Input
Amino acid sequence: TKEIVSNYSLKDKRIKYELNPYRGKVGGTKFGFEEALYEWVKFLDGDDYIDFKELQPNHFNSDSIIHNYWELDSKGLKRIKISDDIINDRDNWIGNLRSIPKAMFFFKKSLIRNSNIFDKCIFEDLVINISVLYNSKKIVKIDNCLYYYRQHSNNYYGNSFFGNPQKVKLLGHR
Output
């Protein structure tokens, strides 16, 4: 990852590589968010891939963009469709502690008004979901898959979860 990003950063000054020693998952998210220089934010795990071909300029006439994704695990590649309820019934979605990986959003940095919300959070994907969904006036949903997500067999945190209080309690111990 370092070599790939460093190579791109030589060609495009908007791309920056920052080492994240000893910060952990939540601390790394906070650090990356604070270092973001532009209006829009997109998270990308080091072993994942984004296909930008489906993005159109008019998608950015919104506060956030959400998209479906491909998940690759030991069984192969499968399409993950994010429910349209995330837009049509936002209050219910949030109220039931429904969450998707933060990497499935493009969003305006201004939707998260204070990065200190990450300091005491146990699951930053849920914090980002709630912040983006509550603060977005307009969300665009792209039905095509833009993100290729590698799900590792030992990764407990990676899958979406839907109103699972037991998982929330377990996540609190990390």
